[in-house]
């Protein structure tokens, strides 16, 4: 992304990581992406009673090019899926996705042909938030959890290492098709 | 169904009125069925179309009026049970729909039934599919007026390791007791006590006065044995099990590494209950009084998905309902198919399905690493590439033998047959991974292949007499046994069996024994007694798996059929055998019954398969494939679902697998072949693929894929393998093989010649007689300890005189050791009326792996000695 | 014309106040500055939810620590989102998790399907499944992590409880449990659990408990 990617591993990079994480987590700019009922709760979160402004993210950008957090709030229909993906693609790096509500996360009770069974089929999701819809506290709670993730986000060689570790773990994991009987 | 049963004479119709609608039904129709004709459902619990009327539950009460002698229609004073009353002319019936009296009577009965019925629906397995629950909700009282304490019993009695009885829930409909008496012939529970204490109970010594000193191992002296040779076995069907108990040893075992769960109760004969059909009582129980241990509390009917299925075990082709949940089969039930299994099946078909989900299931292709010598999981493309290269190399180096095994669907067997001819360019293919003979192949080519639907279950039921030649119906073809027993109980049917001794199955069929020394079945088939047995027109001869080891038997059977006019049917033991014959998985046979030796048939098939020509040389059969591979003549082996221990000589089979330079194994689970294989390609078990079995009748038994799975069928794997070799055999898709085979049509040309008679003299001290039990060590019964507990205990059987020669003392339990130069088997001895100089062993029961220990089969010479004391506990 | 009218209006409204007209709207803003702040300082100060708020589920225990769930799957049946998976199993003398013969061996709730509607707790015949007001655990970075298993859902072990498996209170039936006659665990149960933990005497102790229980 920038100069921080070129830094060698070690104390220097760690310090930059901490600093970059601290900066990034406090300046999330969400893209407006209300799709259904969850959007109402998302709007409430931005309103004075819950006031996302306390976390520096009261400005929901209308343009994805100015946003770095996509809150997918509501059920994603098959027709909407390409739009979601395009908005995601238009966002600048580093970017995060919060899947708000059960419909966005897994299809929820709409287990049918019209609804994408989890927005992670289209975009990589960093944090899932169940609820139908989740109350604003739950959204804030999830955003704070995301802040933790962002704070601890590795950079440069550390990031490559983390990616490799994640891939190795994924290869080792039991494929969901073989998890007989249980929910998956 | 009683109503639709065909009748030889013109049907007498009676006309009656039900709920104001006039209806004509055949004479003798029960009111409850007549109402069904009109679409009026009368509630019932005890009534079952295949069981005799009982009138036990009283739920089906209706108001009936009948014309008296003057013709005035007079109502009967009280409501009548419609499940026991037959329709008579002029009857006026009012059901709960039109009559407040019937409605009130049914409500009242329901209230009485519920008095002692516990409110434990949430923990009851039947909850959700329970007739009592449904009916109580539909037309029961909202509230109970019964405020007293309900009758309770200790929670479930374990009748067998598999069947549990919960007496609190029982509504005394007697479906289970009627089934076990009328259909299976294994009474194990019955009504006991009187009045409010009436209950279904076991034959425990606490309730009934039975002897409990289990006579095991059973040794009887010759004085107690009555001669039964050539005579109808004594004992009517009612007390048959007590009559049979003198020589029948059943019971649970926990030997030879097969774990069972728990102990069984004693049955009527005072022995641990071990019926092969007990699962049906669970299915027909209208409440949750009888439950199966394997399915107990595992799932709920409302979250199960049901698929149609066909049993993969024997050649009966019973229809099944496969209930599964989230990718896992939860249970299997007998489905209704009036042409085949009616509504019943055996316990093996019901419960032996866990074999495919064990830890040894293969999920990835394996290729043997040339350096380490270990099998390593690899990707499909790589495994196919290695397999294709190896097979091509082996083909050039001397040829590849194909052993598909006898458990394939028609499509898969056809894929093997086509793959062998088109890709491997050989006729060295034989599905008979069991005892076999050239005579058998000739018989199959001559009389079975390409004959289509022959003798059917219905024909079997209608036949005046049936001769079982080398077939133990109860052990080897359970649905055939049930159908035979049904017609025997109806009346005039006679069953004859060519066997060394009268098995319990034969006694339950009230059958006559044509006593035979194993290996001499040909003589028995040629005897006057056999001719007399099938003299009546319409008789049927069933040829069982044992005949293949009996020289001349097939020829004698054909001769008997020709001289008497009786029809022949071949009843193999495995589900895929008949299909494999049709598909051409035999060395001398191409698909559709086309003989390899016939140039016209070869040209026919070459055109159909779009190849230049087909190999003209008749191939090797399984024994010769094994010999050739062991001698290094055949360089490669392509092996399907074959257990080397089933082969005529397991040691030779293992040696062949060891010697062959390239072995490809297509298996569901890691098996004995896997250890020798160079490439292992995983294939789908029947629940994870669709297909068609041909049952012994020649009937197509199509079934869909039940579970979502990425496992490939044998046919699809062979298709990919052929593509890798560079040959297009076009068998992708689950039914493409079956469809292609059907499109080929049957061979219209000359049939293969009749089998030749080969006489092999029997030498040695004692002749071995053996057949497989329904429940044994078979690999398709793995992983089901509850089922294993109901298997019959393995014993050796000898005649009293032969035993006396060995020095068996009167009244003392003895173990005998059967041995030859290959090995020995020691089992408890049961004295049985049978020919002298014959010893019987179960083929593959725990403690008695006849093939792998003795490498001997039916009719082979063995030696017997009294086992030493140190072997008593073995 | 417009000018003329505006002059008239200002002269009618009169005087210098008209100068404030453009900013009169800010009055609301200024006034609000002195009202109580409505913003909830969520992570720092947690406002309690309504008492009947549908939060995370809980699998309750009997007062002696045995589980109330009997694995009947009625919750799974009632669930409109197919979010619950239950598999029952037999209680044995060696492993007793609930009074009676059946217990829930597997209990899973997929919170990424669950809509917290509460139909499951209405369906529960033993009040084993209830809902708490807890909502903060409901977040996560993986889908699998939001499938809560039985151990995640079980109620905490309170005073007087011993976590299952252990035998029922001697001399009681499952009816007594449902009628509230069992109020806490008894020493026999504690002894049984201790014996089970003690490796050496395990077999003997289990036998004696079995005998006593019957």
From TrEMBL, chain A:
Residues 37-146 form the NADH:ubiquinone oxidoreductase-like 20kDa subunit domain. Its cofactor is [4Fe-4S] cluster. It is an enzyme of class 7 (translocase). The keyword Metal-binding applies. Signal peptide: none annotated. Binds 1 [4Fe-4S] cluster. It comes from the Bacteria. It is a peripheral membrane protein. The keyword tRNA processing does not apply. SUPFAM superfamilies: HydA/Nqo6-like. It is found in: Cell membrane. InterPro entries: NADH_UbQ_OxRdtase-like_20kDa, NADH_UQ_OxRdtase_20Kd_su. [4Fe-4S] cluster binds at residues 37-38, 103, 132. NDH-1 is composed of 14 different subunits. Subunits NuoB, C, D, E, F, and G constitute the peripheral sector of the complex. HAMAP family: NDH1_NuoB. This is NADH-quinone oxidoreductase subunit B. The gene is nuoB.
Automatic annotation (TrEMBL), chain B:
Residues 221-251 are annotated as: Disordered. It holds the Pfam family Molybdop_Fe4S4. Its cofactor is [2Fe-2S] cluster; [4Fe-4S] cluster. InterPro entries: 2Fe-2S_ferredoxin-like_sf, 2Fe-2S_ferredoxin-type, Asp_de-COase-like_dom_sf, MoPterin_dinucl-bd_dom, Mopterin_OxRdtase, Mopterin_OxRdtase_4Fe-4S_dom, NADH_UbQ_OxRdtase_75kDa_su_CS, NADH_UbQ_OxRdtase_ferredoxin. Transmembrane segments: none annotated. SUPFAM superfamilies: 2Fe-2S ferredoxin-like, 4Fe-4S ferredoxins, ADC-like, Formate dehydrogenase/DMSO reductase, domains 1-3. Keywords: 2Fe-2S, 4Fe-4S, Iron, Iron-sulfur, Metal-binding. Residues 101-140 form the 4Fe-4S His(Cys)3-ligated-type domain. It comes from the Bacteria. Residues 304-360 form the 4Fe-4S Mo/W bis-MGD-type domain. Residues 12-99 form the 2Fe-2S ferredoxin-type domain. Residues 237-249 have a biased composition (Basic and acidic residues). PANTHER family: NADH-QUINONE OXIDOREDUCTASE SUBUNIT G (PTHR43105:SF12), RESPIRATORY NITRATE REDUCTASE (PTHR43105). This is NADH-quinone oxidoreductase subunit G. It comes from Kineosporia mesophila.
UniProtKB/TrEMBL annotation, chain C:
It comes from the Bacteria. Binds 2 [4Fe-4S] clusters per subunit. Its cofactor is [4Fe-4S] cluster. The keyword Iron-sulfur applies. Residues 188-214 are annotated as: Disordered. Its main location: membrane. Keywords: 4Fe-4S, Cell membrane, Iron, Iron-sulfur, Membrane, Metal-binding, NAD, Quinone, Translocase, Ubiquinone. The keyword Protein biosynthesis does not apply. It is found in: Cell membrane. Residues 59-89, 105-134 form the 4Fe-4S ferredoxin-type domain. It catalyses: a quinone + NADH + 5 H(+)(in) = a quinol + NAD(+) + 4 H(+)(out). [4Fe-4S] cluster 2 binds at residues 79, 114, 117, 120. InterPro entries: 4Fe4S_Fe-S-bd, 4Fe4S_Fe_S_CS, NADH_quinone_OxRdtase_chainI. Coiled coil: none annotated. [4Fe-4S] cluster 1 binds at residues 69, 72, 75, 124. It is a peripheral membrane protein. Its EC number is 7.1.1.-. Residues 193-214 have a biased composition (Basic and acidic residues). NDH-1 shuttles electrons from NADH, via FMN and iron-sulfur (Fe-S) centers, to quinones in the respiratory chain. The immediate electron acceptor for the enzyme in this species is believed to be ubiquinone. Couples the redox reaction to proton translocation (for every two electrons transferred, four hydrogen ions are translocated across the cytoplasmic membrane), and thus conserves the redox energy in a proton gradient. Belongs to the complex I 23 kDa subunit family. NDH-1 is composed of 14 different subunits. Subunits NuoA, H, J, K, L, M, N constitute the membrane sector of the complex. This is NADH-quinone oxidoreductase subunit I. It comes from Kineosporia mesophila.
């Amino acid at each position: 992304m920038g100069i921080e990617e070129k830094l060698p591993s070690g104390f220097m990079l760690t310090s930059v990581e901490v600093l970059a994480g601290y900066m990034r987590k406090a300046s999330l700019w969400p893209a407006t992406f209300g799709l259904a009922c969850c959007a109402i709760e998302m709007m409430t979160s931005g309103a004075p009673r819950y006031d996302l402004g306390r976390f520096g993210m009261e400005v929901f950008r209308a343009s994805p090019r100015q946003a770095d957090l996509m809150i997918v709030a509501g059920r994603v229909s098959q027709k909407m899926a390409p739009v979601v993906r395009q908005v995601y693609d238009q966002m600048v790096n580093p970017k995060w996705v919060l899947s708000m509500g059960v419909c966005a996360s897994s299809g929820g009770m709409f287990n049918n042909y019209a609804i994408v069974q989890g927005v992670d089929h289209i975009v990589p999701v960093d944090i899932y938030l169940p609820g139908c819809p989740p109350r604003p506290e739950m959204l804030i709670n999830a955003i704070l959890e995301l802040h933790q993730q962002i704070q601890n986000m590795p950079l440069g060689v550390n990031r490559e290492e983390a990616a490799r570790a994640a891939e190795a773990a994924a290869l080792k994991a039991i494929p969901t098709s073989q998890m007989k009987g249980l929910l998956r | 169904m009683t109503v639709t049963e065909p009748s030889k004479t013109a049907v007498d119709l009676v006309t009656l009125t039900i709920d104001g609608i006039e209806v004509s039904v055949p004479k003798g129709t029960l009111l409850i069925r007549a109402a069904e004709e009109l679409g009026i459902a009368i509630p019932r619990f005890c009534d079952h179309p295949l069981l005799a009327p009982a009138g036990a539950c009283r739920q089906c009460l209706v108001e009936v009026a009948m014309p008296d002698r003057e013709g005035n229609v007079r109502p009967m004073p009280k409501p009548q049970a419609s499940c026991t009353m037959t329709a008579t002319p002029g009857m006026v019936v009012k059901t709960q729909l039109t009559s407040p009296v019937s409605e009130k009577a049914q409500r009242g009965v329901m209230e009485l039934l519920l008095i002692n019925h516990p409110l434990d629906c949430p923990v009851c397995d039947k909850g959700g599919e329970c007739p009592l629950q449904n009916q109580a909700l539909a037309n029961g009282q909202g509230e109970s007026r019964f405020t007293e304490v309900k009758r309770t019993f200790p929670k479930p009695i374990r009748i067998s390791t598999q069947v549990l009885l919960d007496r609190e829930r029982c509504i005394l409909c007697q479906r289970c007791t009627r089934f076990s008496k009328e259909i299976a012939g294994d009474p194990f529970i019955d009504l006991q006590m009187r009045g409010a204490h009436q209950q279904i109970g076991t034959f425990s010594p606490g309730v009934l006065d039975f002897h409990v000193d289990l006579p095991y191992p059973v040794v009887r002296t010759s004085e107690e044995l009555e001669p039964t040779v050539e005579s109808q076995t004594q004992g009517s069907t009612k007390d048959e099990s007590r009559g049979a108990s003198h020589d029948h040893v059943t019971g649970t075992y926990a030997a030879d590494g097969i774990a069972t769960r728990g102990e069984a109760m004693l049955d009527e004969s005072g022995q641990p209950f071990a019926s092969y059909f007990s699962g049906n009582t669970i299915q027909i129980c209208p409440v949750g009084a009888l439950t199966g241990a394997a399915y107990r509390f595992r799932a709920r009917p409302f979250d199960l998905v049901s698929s149609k299925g066909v049993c993969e075990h024997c050649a009966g082709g019973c229809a099944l309902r496969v209930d599964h949940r989230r990718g896992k089969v939860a249970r299997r039930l007998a489905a209704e198919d009036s042409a085949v299994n009616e509504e019943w099946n055996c316990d093996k078909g019901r419960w032996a399905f866990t074999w495919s989900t064990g830890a040894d299931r293969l999920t990835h292709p394996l290729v043997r690493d040339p350096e380490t010598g270990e099998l390593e999981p690899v990707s499909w493309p790589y495994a196919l590439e290695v397999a294709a290269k190896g097979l091509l190399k082996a083909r050039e180096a001397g040829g590849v033998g194909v052993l598909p095994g006898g458990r394939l669907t028609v499509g898969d067997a056809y894929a093997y047959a086509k793959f062998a001819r088109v890709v491997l360019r050989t006729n060295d293919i034989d599905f008979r991974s069991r005892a076999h003979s050239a005579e058998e192949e000739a018989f199959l080519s001559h009389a079975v292949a390409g004959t289509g639907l022959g003798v059917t279950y219905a024909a079997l039921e209608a036949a005046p007499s049936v001769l079982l030649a080398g077939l133990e119906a109860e052990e080897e073809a359970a649905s055939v046994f049930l159908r035979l027993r049904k017609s025997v109980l109806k009346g005039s049917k006679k069953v004859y069996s060519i066997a060394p001794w009268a098995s319990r199955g034969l006694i339950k069929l009230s059958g006559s024994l044509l006593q035979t020394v194993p290996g001499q079945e040909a003589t028995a088939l040629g005897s006057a007694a056999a001719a007399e047995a099938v003299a009546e027109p319409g008789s049927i001869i069933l040829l069982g798996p044992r005949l293949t080891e009996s020289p001349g038997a097939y020829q004698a059977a054909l001769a008997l059929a020709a001289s008497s006019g009786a029809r022949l049917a071949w009843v193999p033991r495995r589900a895929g055998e008949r299909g494999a014959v049709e598909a051409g998985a035999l060395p001398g046979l191409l698909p559709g019954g086309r003989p390899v030796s016939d140039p016209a048939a070869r040209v026919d098939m070459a055109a159909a398969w779009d190849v230049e020509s087909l190999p003209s040389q008749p191939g090797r059969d399984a024994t010769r494939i094994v010999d050739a591979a062991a001698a290094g003549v055949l360089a490669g082996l392509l092996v399907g679902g074959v257990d080397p221990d089933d082969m005529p000589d397991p040691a030779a089979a293992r040696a062949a697998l060891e010697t062959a330079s390239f072995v490809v194994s297509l298996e569901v689970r890691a098996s004995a072949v896997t250890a020798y294989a160079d490439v292992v390609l995983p294939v789908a078990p029947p629940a994870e693929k669709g297909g068609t079995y041909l049952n012994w009748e020649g009937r197509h038994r199509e079934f869909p894929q039940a579970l979502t799975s990425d496992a490939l069928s044998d046919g699809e794997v062979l298709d990919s393998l052929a593509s890798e070799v560079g040959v297009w055999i076009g068998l992708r898709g689950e039914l493409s093989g079956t469809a292609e085979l059907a499109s080929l049509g049957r061979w219209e040309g000359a049939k293969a010649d009749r089998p030749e008679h080969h006489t092999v003299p029997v030498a040695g001290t004692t002749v071995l007689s053996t057949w497989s039990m329904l429940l044994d060590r078979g690999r398709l019964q793995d992983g089901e300890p509850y089922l294993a507990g109901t298997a019959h205990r393995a014993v050796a059987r000898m005649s009293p005189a032969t035993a006396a020669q060995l020095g068996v003392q009167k009244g003392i339990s003895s173990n005998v050791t059967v041995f030859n130069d290959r090995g020995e088997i020691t089992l408890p001895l049961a004295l049985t009326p049978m020919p002298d100089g014959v010893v019987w062993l179960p083929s593959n029961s725990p403690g008695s792996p006849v093939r792998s220990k003795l490498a001997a089969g039916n009719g082979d010479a063995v030696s017997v000695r009294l086992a030493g004391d140190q072997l008593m506990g073995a | 014309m417009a000018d003329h009218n505006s002059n008239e209006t200002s002269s009618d409204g009169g005087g210098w106040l008209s100068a404030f007209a453009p900013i009169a709207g800010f009055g609301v803003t200024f006034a609000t500055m002195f009202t109580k702040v409505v913003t909830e300082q969520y992570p720092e100060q947690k406002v309690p939810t309504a008492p009947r708020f549908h939060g995370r589920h809980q699998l309750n225990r009997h007062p002696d620590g045995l589980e109330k769930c009997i694995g009947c799957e009625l919750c799974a049946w009632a669930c409109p989102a197919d979010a619950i998976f239950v598999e029952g199993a037999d209680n044995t003398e060696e492993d007793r998790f609930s009074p009676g013969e059946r217990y829930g061996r597997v209990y899973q709730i997929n919170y990424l399907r669950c809509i917290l509607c509460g139909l499951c707790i209405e369906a529960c015949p033993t009040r084993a499944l209830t809902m708490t007001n807890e909502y903060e655990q409901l977040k996560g970075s993986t889908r699998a992590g939001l499938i809560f298993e039985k151990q995640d859902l079980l109620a905490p072990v309170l005073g007087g409880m011993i976590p299952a498996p252990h035998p029922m209170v001697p001399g009681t039936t499952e009816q007594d449990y449902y009628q509230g006659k069992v109020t806490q665990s008894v020493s026999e149960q504690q002894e049984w659990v201790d014996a089970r933990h003690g490796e050496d005497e395990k077999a003997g102790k289990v036998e004696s408990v079995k005998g006593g229980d019957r």
